Inverse folding.
């Protein structure tokens, strides 16, 4: 397994979380830079012969909104879009042809519960819809004060949806995890809340990163005939387990 991150300590916790037996190779990579992405993928191909799985996990958050001043809005937009949308785009473009050559693969996006949908393009509501029993969202989609972040994560739906359809014939699956609050450096240091110091009971309610990693492993274990095009909602207060595939999103439905 290869971990590409800006941070040289990014492999912390990865091995036990994923139950990886083999080695983990770490590369420094800025996912927003095309040359870094190209070099990373080339290094993996040289060492491993190809790429089977891509998890587009890197992300940054920011507290932003429509009333922010002009200059900071422009900076925030470039910074957040570069990592959260351009990064997954670049990695997807770099690995999709390799996966097709190899006869299949998996691409997993890391989105947010703010933009979880239940059957494209309907969004979840507070109601426990009988059509989508796993979508009892604790709040309506979107998070106050994170408009650029949410827009980038909506963008991942677009890539997921289109890539899942286009790559289906090549046995490449593409799915999107719509993650709720999960204990991580990001959430503990949420920029914009400089004095954010969550009490233990709040931290205890967050999902565990190991459990989220376990859901990704279960998703991958579905194999080539498993779901593709899904956006998988995981949030606190609900079991952190792989829900059934959404029949309205899944391009690998039996009836297709
Ligand atoms: N933790 C949550 O509650 C939560 C909720 C919803 C979605 N997510 C998503 O989950 C993913 C993982 O976030 P996390 O919570 O583990 O946060 P995290 O901050 O622990 O991990 C994000 C990683 O992205 C890396 N990164 C940032 N910019 C980069 C760049 N330009 N190039 C390469 N790497 C870069 C960081 O170094 C860090 O290791 C993100 O996409 C995030 O948006 C997290």
């Amino acid at each position: 397994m290869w971990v590409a991150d800006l941070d040289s300590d990014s492999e912390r916790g990865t091995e036990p979380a994923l139950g990886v037996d083999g080695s983990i190779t770490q590369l420094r990579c800025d996912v927003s830079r095309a040359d870094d992405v190209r070099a990373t993928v080339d290094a993996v191909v040289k060492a491993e012969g190809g790429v089977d799985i891509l998890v587009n996990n890197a992300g940054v958050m920011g507290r932003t909104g429509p009333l922010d001043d002009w200059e900071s809005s422009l900076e925030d937009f470039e910074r957040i879009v570069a990592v959260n949308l351009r990064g997954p785009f670049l990695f997807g473009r770099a690995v999709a042809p390799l996966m097709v050559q190899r006869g299949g693969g998996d691409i997993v996006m890391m989105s947010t519960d703010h933009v979880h949908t239940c059957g494209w393009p309907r969004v979840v509501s507070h109601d426990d819809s009988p059509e989508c029993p796993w979508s009892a969202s604790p709040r309506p989609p979107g998070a106050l004060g994170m408009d650029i972040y949410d827009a980038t994560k909506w963008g991942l739906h677009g890539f997921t949806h289109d890539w899942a359809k286009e790559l289906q014939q090549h046995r490449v699956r593409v799915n999107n995890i719509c993650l709720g609050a999960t204990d991580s450096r990001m959430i503990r240091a949420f920029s914009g809340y400089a004095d954010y110091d969550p009490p233990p009971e709040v931290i205890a309610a967050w999902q565990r990163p190991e459990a989220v990693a376990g859901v990704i492993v279960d998703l991958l274990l579905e194999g080539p005939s498993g779901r593709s095009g899904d956006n998988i909602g995981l949030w606190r207060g609900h079991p952190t387990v792989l829900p059934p595939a959404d029949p309205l999103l899944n391009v690998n439905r039996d009836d297709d």
Notes: The longest helix spans residues 70-102.
